[in-house]
Design goal:
The structure holds two protein chains of two kinds. Chain A is an alpha/beta fold. Chain A has eight helices and ten strands. In chain A, helix 3 (110-137) crosses helix 5 (154-168). The longest helix of chain A is centred in the middle third of the chain and has 28 residues, at 110-137. In chain A, 47% of the residues are buried. By secondary structure, chain B is mainly alpha-helical. Chain B folds into three domains: 2-312, no CATH class; 371-655, no CATH class; 657-689. Chain B has helices at 2-37, 44-61, 66-89, 98-120, 152-174, 176-186, 188-193, 198-220, 229-245, 251-278, 286-304, 306-310, 336-359, 362-387, 395-413, 417-436, 444-460, 471-476, 494-517, 519-529, 531-536, 541-567, 572-575, 578-591, 596-614, 617-622, 638-647, 657-688, and strands spanning 141-144, 148-151, 485-486, 489-490. The chains are: A alpha/beta, B mainly alpha. The interface between A and B is medium-sized, with 34 and 27 residues.
Chain lengths: 253, 689
């Protein structure tokens, strides 16, 4: 397949690209989830990943953050080939991944959850400022800072996950099922925060149910179908195109 | 009068403090290991044993000064063991279910002490224990209020335990290192997404908890009469009781729990004999109640403290990243090669039996008979673990119930031992059913620990009554059990009784196979897969569990009865004690708990592996002369424990065991070959078109 898209992949390390997936095949044991995926996200660019259930969106996000190692192909982050590297090297290279669902340490408190990443990035001195920033973003987390994360509601756990990556201020932010479980007001907050990060030069890879939200935020849209990008285009093109693609049965080209 | 009681209480508290400190020390270590690795590390005692033995060797035998001995055994060996355990074994089990790592830890409990003994050429001997780490530790005393005198060793242990509790609790509460360790336990993947190297954190956590195990080992060894691995295992179980008070995660509460247990035992020791003077019904039990106290506490805490039960192992939110487990069952096509293989196997078995019956000497006949009786016990593990999916660590107690019943019926009422065996099976089944009732709400690891608590309770209390084993008989093994006579057949000889045992084993095997194929078997297997799913299709998990426990207990009881008839006496300590019975589970699980072959192979290994393989008999027979056996043989029987203890490691990835694993691999290969054949056919078809 390998549709080039608006930002064509160059050969060799492209320092300007936040993320480059080259001919990536990946899966879980005997199950293959991604086939021949080529995708480049330039620094500061926002990409929305769209597709039906089981299309491979989450798998693509996991490959991009090192959680899943591709069986073939390579993953280049900020010009460094990290294909076989463990996930923490991705994080240190500036990838922040908010996985889908309740991805928090249930047995740690809200504050401890946040401390783990803030401490790594900002050190002991920046800890307080980082925490304040997170609580300013989602005040409810501040109220529950001593509560075990596992006892939070689904939406609150989602906020905690998002707070971690938003405060992180990475080079590339990956958000899987960005607003699932969040109250409308919080969805708005989250998008405002993302918009700010974008303006400061953070690249985004967003998987989102609310396609309209995603299109408003992102420059580019990638449609995945059965583990392969079948369409890549600008948000404007996507707006017209998606109506037909998403509401008709998947094609098998 | 009241002043006296007050004085007694204070004395008891002081007396209880030193043993309480030992419990607290081990409980702290256990909690530390659990908090930092998520592993229910029953091998903690084995790790402590390793350091204690090395300390003894270097200090007492080789005459090293205290500091170098301590450095090598505690600060080098112990973290090294932790490093190896993490990097070779537990790293790969991080996302496995907790029961898998528990089984591996049980295997290590068996394997590590044997490795240590072999490597250091150490043999546990009575009275051979290391001295403490402070000079004159056991001879200089410091009296407190003239009521009790603490030895230097005791004060040292108490100081270390208190300091460790404070330091470790502070580390977890206030430092990033502690926070990272807790994070890795819950989800190594999420930790990595935070940019933290999970492997490195996990290694340091294991090294820390192992260091602590080593320290505890060296500090508590002087309290034991013998430096033996079983002692260390026992104390770990006691420590789990102390740790359970703190829901297994609170260090201060584990410390307090340990001290409280020590004090409670001292109080019981002081007051129960006095009460027994007034209440005669207490008298037969007065010596048994106190040793059983920790196990009763553990059992009660498990059953009645819902917080602990629900303190479930927080699931890794990113578990979905791992590849799904490979399907273990690949339907076997009955092909020509399979028929040939089965025929060969049967022929081999028949030939072996013919050789055994015609040429086997008395030692072989005796061992084979023992193996056949044990195989019946092991089949109970096939039911409870293989079929129903529970880890039961009290099968030895069930077997002992059968054995004692047979003995008592024969000794008191002159009942035929065969009737006794059947009665023993029924009594054991009843005990199993009763035991399963309080366990109904427990799951996974908690069942294993509760059954372990029961086994130790049985060991401490039930064995010592006149109507079970009676203390004198247990020690000397003079509980004589006769061999049966059925009509014209007198089974006094090992050969004739072996034939009888083989017949019983064959019937039991067929029964277990039929059970696994029956509706009941499917019901058990369904609950093994998922109790919730089973419930949703109308299966009662309660009924399934009671049934599984009583069937398994009954079979274990029958096997235990046969074993003592075969051995012609009840040897509780060698055969049925909790630590001895751990190895049963290890063997069956290694070979495969899901099919009877695993139990039979396990029993054959238990009795014959040493004689046939390790002593070189088989190689000698192959080479047609015992003189040509390589000088390497005979090797120590401890290799058996090492080999099969480590064999449990594959349980996590292959819970079906090595026998089934080999079969699945054969079938898979054959299936692939068939695919190729199909390709050929298709190609041929295409060519013809």
């Amino acid at each position: 397949m390998g549709l080039g898209g608006a930002a064509p992949a160059k050969n060799g390390a492209d320092v300007s690209a936040a993320l480059e997936l080259r001919r990536v095949y990946a899966g879980y044991g005997p199950f293959r989830a991604l086939f021949d995926v080529n995708l480049t996200i330039a620094a500061g660019e926002a990409v929305a990943l769209v597709g039906s259930n089981g299309a491979g969106k989450t798998s693509l996000a996991r490959v991009a953050s090192g959680l899943v190692t591709p069986s073939e192909g390579s993953v280049v982050v900020n010009g460094r080939d990290l294909t076989r590297a463990p996930a923490y090297r991705y994080a240190r290279a500036g990838v922040a991944h908010a996985p889908e669902g309740r991805s928090v340490f249930a047995t740690l408190t809200v504050e401890e959850n946040l401390e783990l990443s803030i401490h790594r990035i900002r050190g002991r001195k920046g800890l307080k400022a980082g925490l304040e920033q997170a609580y300013a973003l989602y005040p409810i987390l501040g109220e529950r800072r001593q509560q075990l994360a596992g006892t939070l509601s689904g939406g609150e756990q989602r906020m905690l996950t998002m707070a971690r990556v938003l405060v992180d201020a990475p080079r590339l932010l990956i958000a899987d099922e960005l607003s699932l479980g969040l109250a409308p007001l919080m969805v708005q907050h989250t998008y405002e925060a993302l918009q700010q990060l974008r303006q400061s030069g953070v690249a985004l890879l967003v998987i989102e149910q609310h396609v309209t939200h995603a299109l408003a935020l992102c420059d580019r849209v990638v449609i995945l179908d059965r583990g392969t990008p079948t369409w890549i285009g600008s948000s404007e093109q996507a707006r017209t195109r998606l109506q037909t693609v998403l509401h008709s049965p998947p094609t098998s080209n | 009068m009241f002043a006296n009681i007050g004085e007694d209480i204070v004395t008891a508290v002081l007396q209880g403090a030193p043993p309480g400190t030992v419990y607290a020390l081990v409980a702290l270590g256990f909690v530390l290991a659990y908090k930092t690795s998520g592993v229910f590390n029953l091998a903690f005692g084995a790790q402590a044993y390793a350091s204690a033995v090395l300390y003894f060797k270097t200090h007492a035998e080789w005459g090293w000064p205290v500091l170098p001995s301590l450095a090598v055994s505690v600060f080098v060996l112990a973290p090294l063991v932790g490093f190896l355990l993490e990097s070779l074994i537990f790293r790969h089990l991080r996302t496995a279910p907790p029961v898998s790592s528990l089984v591996v830890a049980i295997g290590l409990t068996i394997a590590i002490p044997s490795i240590v003994d072999l490597a250091l050429d150490f043999q546990p001997r009575n009275g051979q224990i290391p001295l403490g780490i402070v000079p004159n530790g056991n001879s200089v005393y410091y009296p407190v209020f003239d009521l009790y005198s603490f030895s230097r060793d005791e004060l040292m242990a108490m100081g270390v335990a208190t300091a460790a509790m404070l330091a470790l609790a502070a580390m977890f509460r206030f430092t990033m290192v502690g926070l990272k360790m807790r994070a890795v336990v819950e989800s190594p993947r999420l930790t990595e997404l935070n940019g933290l190297a999970a492997d490195r954190i996990s290694i340091s956590a294991w090294m820390l908890s192992s260091l602590f195990a080593g320290l505890a080992g060296v500090l508590i060894a002087p309290r034991f009469p013998t430096l033996a691995p079983g002692r260390f295992f026992d104390i770990v179980v006691v420590a789990i009781a102390a740790a359970a008070v703190g829901a297994l995660v609170s260090l201060p509460r584990a410390y307090i729990g340990g001290l409280a247990l020590g004090v409670a035992i001292a109080l019981f020791n002081t007051f129960i004999p006095r009460w027994a003077n007034d209440h005669s019904w207490l008298r037969p039990m007065q010596n048994n109640i106190t040793p059983a106290l920790p196990f009763v506490v553990l059992f009660l805490v498990l059953v009645f403290m819902p917080g602990l039960r629900r303190a479930r192992f927080a699931a890794d939110p990113l578990a979905g990243v791992d590849p799904p487990p490979r399907s273990t069952v690949i339907p076997a096509p009955i092909s020509a090669s399979e028929i040939v293989r089965r025929t060969l196997g049967t022929t081999l078995l028949v030939v072996t039996l013919i050789v055994l019956f015609t040429r086997g000497d008395s030692a072989f006949l005796y061992l084979a008979g023992q193996g056949a009786a044990l195989a019946v016990v092991y089949l109970s593990i096939t039911i409870i673990t293989g079929l129903a999916g529970h880890i039961s660590l009290c099968q030895g107690s069930f077997a002992a119930v059968g054995a004692f019943t047979t003995y008592q019926l024969a000794a008191r009422y002159d009942t035929s031992v065969l009737v006794g065996a059947v009665a023993g099976a029924l009594v054991a089944a009843a005990v199993g059913a009763l035991l399963s009732v309080p366990l109904i709400r427990l799951s996974g690891v908690w069942i294993a620990i509760a059954t372990l608590a029961f086994a130790f309770f049985f060991d401490a209390v039930m064995v010592k009554f006149s109507w079970t084993g009676a203390p004198s008989g247990v020690a000397t093994g003079d509980l004589v059990v006769p061999r049966p006579v059925i009509g014209p057949w007198d089974m006094a000889s090992d050969k004739s009784f072996l034939a009888f045992l083989l017949a019983v084993l064959a019937i039991a095997t067929v029964a277990v196979m039929l059970l696994s194929r029956s509706t009941t078997g499917r019901m058990l297997r369904a609950t093994r897969g998922s109790e919730i799913a089973a419930q949703s299709i109308g299966i009662s998990p309660t009924r399934a569990r009671v049934l599984a426990f009583s069937l398994a207990a009954g079979l274990a009881g029958l096997g235990g009865a046969l074993l003592v008839i075969q051995q012609e006496s009840v040897n509780y300590d060698t055969n049925f004690a909790p630590f001895a019975a751990l190895f049963w589970l290890v063997l069956v699980v290694t070979f495969g708990a899901r099919a009877p072959e695993g139990a039979i192979a396990g029993a054959a290994t238990f009795t014959l592996f040493d004689k046939v393989v390790l002593q070189g008999t088989f190689i000698g027979w192959l080479l047609r002369s015992p003189d040509r056996v390589p000088g390497l043989l005979p090797v120590s029987p401890k290799w058996r424990l090492v080999l099969f203890g480590l064999g449990t490691i594959q349980y996590a990835s292959h819970p079906e065991g090595v026998l089934e694993m080999a079969r699945a691999r054969r079938n898979r290969r054959r299936a692939e070959d068939d695919d190729h054949d199909d390709d050929h056919v298709e190609l041929a078809l295409e060519a013809s078109v």
